[in-house]
Each structure stands twice: as structure tokens, then as C-alpha cells.
Amino acid sequence: MRVILREDLANLGKTGDIVKVTDGYARNYLLPRRLAAQATEGNMKQIEHERRSALSRRDKLLKEAGTLRDKLEGVSVTVAKRVGEGERLFGSVTPHDIELALAEEGHKVERKHIRIVEPIRALGVFPVKIALHGGTEANIKVWVVAK
């Protein structure tokens, strides 16, 4: 059976590709999960329309990510934490702490996008990456100070 993929599948292909699969695989797995549609003329037109709208949506998200990267690039935020002996932190600076500090500065970034390379457990300045849509990254500085 020939089907049109609605989503990227590692073992078959990318969205919009027309592939030939066994009837059982299509009937029992791909079609019920809406991962693919039968390759009829009407479905081909509909899938092409969905693909075009997905591409325009992706382009819009990439443009927004670029503007957000430009805003965030070079931003530095301060996180105040309690310290113990030898200026070591109680715990560490988490993405949640950085998210709150960025929100105070007026930047809305979700904590799941904040990438800390190694745990921050001391006072000082640390580089942190913010992963945005489409592999775009912004670099910020986090100043950790004693509370």
C-alpha cells in the first residue's frame, strides 16, 4: 500500500514523502495513529496544503527565535544564593533560578530551554546557553552572588 507520511519517521521518511509499506503495517499502525494517510489524489492535495502551512509556521518560529536570540545575546542576570564555608553554595543554581532572574529582567524563557553545561555550585560568572527553536542558541552570563 502506498501512503503519505504526516510525520517524520526514522525508519520510513520525512513528512510528505510517499512510501510503499505492507498493508498490515499501514492498516494496523500508521493509519490509526494518524502518522500516514493513503496516497489518494485528494489526500495528496490535503497533505501538500498541510506541508505548506507547516513550513510557513516553522519559518515564523525561526524568525521569532532569531529576534529573541538578538534580545538575549549578551544579557547578564544576577542570582543571589545562600553560601557556606569557602564561598560554596548550598545546593546549586538551577534552570528555575535562571528563569526567574530572566523574568525579572523582562525576558520570558522557559526553563526547559536553559542549558547549564555543568552544575553551578560556586560564586562567580558562568556562561549559560538558551536553546531556541530550530537549533538557534543564545549565550547569557549568570552572575552568582552571596545572599
Describe this structure in words.
This protein is an alpha+beta fold and 147 residues long. The protein folds into 2 domains: 59 residues, Ribosomal protein L9, N-terminal domain (Ribosomal Protein L9, domain 1); 78 residues, Ribosomal protein L9, C-terminal domain (Ribosomal Protein L9, domain 2), CATH 3.10.430. Helices cover 35% and strands 31% of the residues. The protein has a 4-stranded mixed β-sheet with strand order 4-9-8-6. The longest helix has 32 residues. It is elongated, with a radius of gyration of 23 Å. The model has no long low-confidence stretch (mean pLDDT 90).
Please count the helical segments.
Answer: 3
Approximate helicity band: 25-40%
Q: End-to-end span in angstroms?
A: 66 Å
Secondary structure class reads alpha+beta
List the helices and strands and how they pair.
Layout: E1 2-5, E2 18-20, H1 23-30, E3 36-38, H2 41-72, E4 76-81, E5 88-93, H3 95-105, E6 114-115, E7 120-122, E8 124-131, E9 137-146
Parallel strand pairs: 4-9
Antiparallel strand pairs: 1-2, 1-3, 5-7, 6-8, 8-9
Summarize, please.
This protein has helices spanning 23-30, 41-72, 95-105, and strands at 2-5, 18-20, 36-38, 76-81, 88-93, 114-115, 120-122, 124-131, 137-146.
What keyword list fits this structure?
147 residues, alpha+beta, Ribosomal Protein L9, domain 1, Ribosomal Protein L9, domain 2, 2 domains, 3-stranded antiparallel beta sheet, 3 helices, 9 strands, 35% helix
